[in-house]
Amino acid sequence: MKINQLINKNDLNKSPAKSGVYWLYKKLKSGWDVVYIGIGKNINRRLFQHKRDAIKDFDAFYYEEAIYSEARKREQVILKSYKDSTGRFPIYNRQT
């Protein structure tokens, strides 16, 4: 993914009211860091929940639309790939 595809968290209205996978990013001195990978039946509503709840600190997001059942599978593949490439899960993704 190209960094210029990220959308500022103040532009959540650019996210779809459709199901899919989304990534939350935090801007660090060293660049962008994925802090959470999630799914939602309504990406727009889910991102607004994250912003309102202020539990997950993020500055930008990216999303891929997908049928919800496929999004669940895709999320697991993305999380495994992320862990394999970085040696860890994003900080807000709890994995046992």
Which terms would index this structure?
96 residues, alpha+beta, GIY-YIG endonuclease, four-stranded antiparallel β-sheet, 4 strands
Any chance you could write out the topology, listing elements then pairs?
Layout (H helix, E strand, L loop, with lengths): L6 E2 L11 E9 L2 E10 L2 H11 L6 E6 L2 H19 L10
Antiparallel strand pairs: 1-4, 2-3, 2-4
Number of helices: 2
Can you count the beta strands? 4
Rg calculated over all Cα atoms: 13 Å
N-to-C series of helices and strands: EEEHEH
Estimate nothing, just give the exact number of structural domains.
1
Uncertain spans: none
Polypeptide structure, described:
A hairpin with a 2-residue loop joins strand 2 (20-28) and strand 3. The chain has a single domain (3-86), classed as GIY-YIG endonuclease. Strands 1-4-2-3 form a four-stranded antiparallel β-sheet. The radius of gyration is 13 Å and the shape is globular. Helices cover 31% and strands 28% of the residues. The protein has 96 residues and is α+β, with helices and mostly antiparallel strands. The mean pLDDT is 92.
